[in-house]
Amino acid sequence: MPESGAVVPDGERRERTGSRDTGPGSGDQGQAPGGGRSPAPAPAPARFVALGDSLTEGLGDPVPGGGWRGWAALLAGALGERPGGVELVNLARSGALAAELAERQLPVARDLGPRFASLVVGANDTCARPSPSSGSRPRWTGRTAH
Q1: Model pTM greater than 0.85?
Q2: Which of 2, 14, 25, 75 has the highest Cβ tally under 10 A?
Q3: CA 123, 127, 132, 138 torsion: positive or negative?
């Protein structure tokens, strides 16, 4: 089961699927006992960024101690070649609309440079869509981001 997420810039949650950090500053580098150099640290895990709404956030799938797990955390655990091989950054937010995902979540995801990404959004747009008789247009214009 993934560890609970840590807060990182812009409030997204990062979850590691089981391994501990062996990156710079973790204390795993330098002199080995007996004066030799310690082996090189393990490569950084691949990153999986999940974008979306409450379905991706994990709403309704509680974990002991608080917070949500959801399908993205389960998928991240299955993507790696070894336990802890994939880091999850879950950018999803309950109530998100497609326009919010494109404007807020997508730029952060791009900056993170993930190896894997998922995008599940649209239910809130459908439920929030005004009726044709109201004369107003939905907020999402159908643009796609590249």
Answers
A1: no
A2: 2
A3: negative
Tokens 């810039």 belong to 9
User: Confidence class of residue 127 from pLDDT cuts 50, 70 and 90?
Assistant: confident
Q: Inform me whether the pLDDT recorded for 139 exceeds 60.
A: no
CA 64 to chain centre: 20
Residue reference for tokens 């999850």: 88
Give 72's strand partners. Answer: none
Q: In what order do the strands lie in the sheet with 86-90?
A: 6-7, 13-16, 86-90, 46-52, 116-120
- Per-residue DSSP letters for the chain? -PPPPEE-GGG-EEEESSPPP-STTSS-SSBPTTSSBPPPPPPPPEEEEEEESHHHHTTT-B-TTSSB-HHHHHHHHHHSSSTT-EEEEE---TT--HHHIIIIIHHHHHHH--SEEEEE--HHHHHHPPPGGG-PPPS-------
Token digits of residue 2: 């993934």
* Nearest in space to 6 (alpha carbons), one of 53, 67, 58: 67
